[in-house]
């Protein structure tokens, strides 16, 4: 298996978390959270990150309910965000189930740093880490 760099995004209408990982280790690290206005980020900031890391693939968290069904608007918007990433930057994008990623991210951050670690940006980036590591597990088990 060749080593590939994979980037992940946890899409939200106010904030979008990001993480980076390697297929060789199957682990991810938080990068940064991007402020968004009604789900639209400053694309030039995302472009800078993509140019810096040059990922082979981008994984975007797909919000669903507990049964795996699409949620009313956020699921569609996350898919649209993934399509825009592909359209703007030409990097292949995969959607990945993100059920319970925020709860898991909060628990991990709290265990590392208590309530002070639970800032919105930290939670969004840690959620992207959870999404990416879950994707690695699904791919390489």
Q: How many structural domains does the protein architecture include?
A: 1
The CATH topology is given as: Nucleotidyltransferase, domain 5
Number of strands: 6
Summarize the helix and strand pattern as letters.
EEEEHEHEHH
Radius of gyration: 14 Å
Coarse morphology:
globular
**CATH arch. level architecture:** 2-Layer Sandwich
What's the CATH first level?
Alpha Beta
What percent of residues are in strands?
Answer: 25-35%
Instruction: Report the end-to-end length measured between terminal Cα atoms.
Output: 14 Å
* Low-pLDDT sequence parts: none
CATH superfamily: YqgF/RNase H-like domain
Output the structural class: alpha/beta
- Overall pLDDT, averaged? 84
Helical region count? 4
Q: Which bin fits the share of residues in helices?
A: 40-55%
User: What is the makeup of the main sheet?
Assistant: 6 strands, mixed
Q: State the strand order across the main sheet.
A: 4-3-2-1-5-6
Detailed description of the structure:
By secondary structure, the chain is of the alpha/beta class. It has a single domain (about 5-135), classed as 2-Layer Sandwich (Nucleotidyltransferase, domain 5), CATH 3.30.420.140. The protein is built from four helices and six strands. Strands 4-3-2-1-5-6 form a six-stranded mixed beta sheet, with helices on both faces. The protein is globular.
């Amino acid at each position: 298996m060749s080593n590939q760099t994979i980037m992940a995004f946890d899409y939200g209408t106010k904030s979008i978390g990001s993480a980076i990982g390697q297929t060789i280790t199957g682990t991810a690290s938080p990068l940064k959270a991007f402020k968004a206005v009604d789900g639209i980020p400053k694309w030039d900031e995302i472009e800078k990150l993509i140019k810096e890391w040059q990922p082979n693939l981008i994984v975007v968290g797909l919000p669903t309910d507990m049964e795996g069904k699409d949620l009313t608007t956020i699921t569609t918007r996350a898919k649209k965000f993934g399509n825009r990433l592909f359209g703007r930057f030409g990097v292949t994008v995969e959607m990945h189930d993100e059920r319970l990623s925020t709860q898991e991210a909060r628990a991990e951050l709290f265990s590392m740093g208590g309530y002070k670690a639970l800032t919105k940006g930290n939670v969004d980036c840690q959620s992207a880490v959870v999404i990416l590591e879950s994707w690695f597990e699904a791919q390489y088990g």
